[in-house]
Every structure is written in structure tokens, then in C-alpha cells.
């Protein structure tokens, strides 16, 4: 990846009327979602259309614990639900001290020095390769106490030139709208969105692949879970294990039943979060919970 320096988003460059128009449209939908009962879906759709991003993910990152909570996620290619977003890359892209990052700032993966790119987890790099993404962007929307709200997006093309300028305009305008949100609005979304982290007051539960083996998985099922956590789909697992596709699917069905989860999307999120749901509690897919 090219060796370039960070470029922070500033005021929109003059003369880009189309950029201003698209940013205004984005802000209009974002403001409606922030101040009414309208969902974020429309705003993320506009951002996706203007930035060319196939996946747009908004989350809150706790600066003290590193805990990440999904606010909303949009994936325009529903055919890729078997390979969902499994780990946010924002903390690896932006500077370590997020507490002082200015709202409306944009970073992209392509602009980082190679050593920074090496900090991305192997599963993230594999996921991006499988999806055909060449670049990713991270926008700091705003701060709330010891937490920072982040918009993360993935693109099949490098975010550079005119596209980068448009994304910077979207970032600057979006951060202004986000900063004017009513108190408690994000907290309301977080309560309404299924999370892969334990709720407040819920007793901690052992991770599925921990030594305690809370789901009582067999050795074969444990191996398949490990491969799923690496980003493998059933076809990849067949290649890695030498089992038939029917055997792999049988193992996956058994895993879903033992973990009381709905499918591979929920399983991947559970494995990447290293948490398991309490007995009797079903895990719901949150890839499209807007």
C-alpha cells in the first residue's frame, strides 16, 4: 500500500456543488433519524450510494474497555450474509488516542503505512479479500464521555481523488448533524439493536472455544468453529478439513443447536466477540438490525 500521510477532513472544497448536494441529502436523512422515529437505514443508503461503499457500519467504541457496540449496519450485497463483517478495523486505522480526534475526521486503509496495516487481524484481511474490498474508510462522528461514535465503510475501489473529497464532505456534514443529536438517542439505538456483548447485569458466560467448552462441542465441531472464526465459509471448511459438504453442514447445524443461535452470521459474531449467550437465550442476527 502506498506510503502517504494522514489527511484530516476539513471544510468542503469550493466548486464541488455535487458533493455539497449529496452531503446535504445525507445530512437530511441522518437528521431525520436522529430527531424522529425514522431508522438509520435511509441515511446509510444515501452514504453507500455516494461513497460507493458496499458495507457501512456505525458503532460506539468505549475508550476505556475497548468494547464495541453496533448502532447500525448496512450490507448492500445480501448474498454475502455467510461472510458478515466480523471485526471493526477502526481502532487499527485511527490514532491510538481517539479521545482527542476531531469529529468529521476521515482515515482510509490505503493511505496508511504498511506497518499500520499489519495491525489488522488476519480474519479482517481475509474477509476483505473474500468480499473484493480494496479499501476501507473510518469517520469519527463524535464523542460521548469515554466513548467515540464511528462510521466505518468498505469499498471495492481505492478511496482517493474525487471520491475521497466527496467522502470528506460527507464526513464533515455528518459529524455536524451527529453532534446536534438529542441526548440519549444513540443509547436508545443501542438498546434496540441486538448486541454480541453481554447486557448490563448479565452474568459473564464462558466463550464457546474456551477450555470450559460451555456448548459441549466435539473435537470436530471445535475445529469447524475455529475455521469459521478465521473467516471460512462451508466450502472453505470442506477444503481445509477434507470432509464432505454434507458433513460440514451437519456439524454446523449441531453447533447452532448447542449454542442456541440462528445461523452462521450469529456464530461468527459470537466467536469474534468471545462470548456465548446465556442458556435459553436466542442470539439474533444483527447484520441488518437498523
Automatic annotation (TrEMBL):
State the Gene Ontology BP annotations.
Answer: regulation of DNA-templated transcription
- Gene Ontology molecular function: DNA binding
Reply yes or no: does the keyword DNA-binding apply: yes
Q: Which SUPFAM superfamilies match?
A: C-terminal effector domain of the bipartite response regulators (SSF46894)
Alphabetized, the UniProt keywords read: DNA-binding
Q: Does the keyword DNA-binding apply?
A: yes
State the SMART domains in the record: HTH_LUXR
Query: Cross-referenced InterPro entries, in alphabetical order?
Result: Sig_transdc_resp-reg_C-effctor, Tscrpt_reg_LuxR_C, WH-like_DNA-bd_sf
Domain HTH luxR-type stretches: 214-271
Q: What name appears for this protein in its UniProt entry?
A: DNA-binding CsgD family transcriptional regulator
Amino acid at each position: 500500500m502506498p506510503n502517504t500521510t494522514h489527511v484530516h477532513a476539513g471544510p468542503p472544497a469550493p466548486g464541488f456543488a455535487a458533493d455539497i448536494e449529496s452531503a446535504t441529502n445525507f445530512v437530511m436523512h441522518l437528521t431525520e433519524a436522529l430527531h424522529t422515529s425514522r431508522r438509520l437505514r435511509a441515511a446509510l443508503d444515501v452514504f453507500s450510494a455516494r461513497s460507493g461503499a458496499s458495507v457501512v457500519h456505525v458503532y460506539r467504541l468505549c475508550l476505556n474497555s475497548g468494547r464495541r457496540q453496533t448502532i447500525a449496519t448496512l450490507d448492500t450485497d445480501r448474498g454475502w450474509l455467510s461472510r458478515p463483517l466480523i471485526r471493526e478495523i477502526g481502532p487499527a486505522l485511527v490514532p491510538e488516542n481517539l479521545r482527542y480526534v476531531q469529529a468529521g475526521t476521515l482515515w482510509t486503509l490505503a493511505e496508511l503505512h504498511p506497518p499500520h496495516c499489519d495491525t489488522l487481524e488476519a480474519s479482517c484481511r481475509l474477509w476483505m479479500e473474500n468480499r473484493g474490498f480494496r479499501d476501507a474508510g473510518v469517520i469519527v462522528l463524535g464523542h460521548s464521555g469515554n466513548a467515540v461514535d464511528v462510521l466505518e465503510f468498505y469499498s471495492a475501489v481505492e478511496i482517493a481523488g474525487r471520491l475521497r473529497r466527496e467522502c470528506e464532505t460527507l464526513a464533515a456534514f455528518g459529524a455536524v448533524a451527529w453532534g446536534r443529536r438529542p441526548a440519549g438517542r444513540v443509547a436508545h439505538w443501542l438498546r434496540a439493536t441486538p448486541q454480541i456483548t453481554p447486557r448490563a447485569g448479565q452474568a459473564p458466560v464462558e466463550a464457546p472455544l474456551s477450555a470450559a467448552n460451555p456448548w459441549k462441542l466435539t473435537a470436530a465441531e471445535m475445529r469447524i468453529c475455529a475455521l469459521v472464526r478465521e473467516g471460512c465459509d462451508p466450502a472453505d471448511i470442506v477444503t481445509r478439513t477434507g470432509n464432505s459438504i454434507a458433513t460440514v453442514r451437519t456439524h454446523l447445524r449441531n453447533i447452532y443447536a448447542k449454542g442456541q443461535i440462528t445461523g452462521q452470521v450469529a456464530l461468527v459474531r459470537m466467536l469474534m466477540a468471545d462470548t456465548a449467550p446465556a442458556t435459553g437465550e436466542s442470539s439474533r442476527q444483527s447484520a441488518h438490525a437498523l
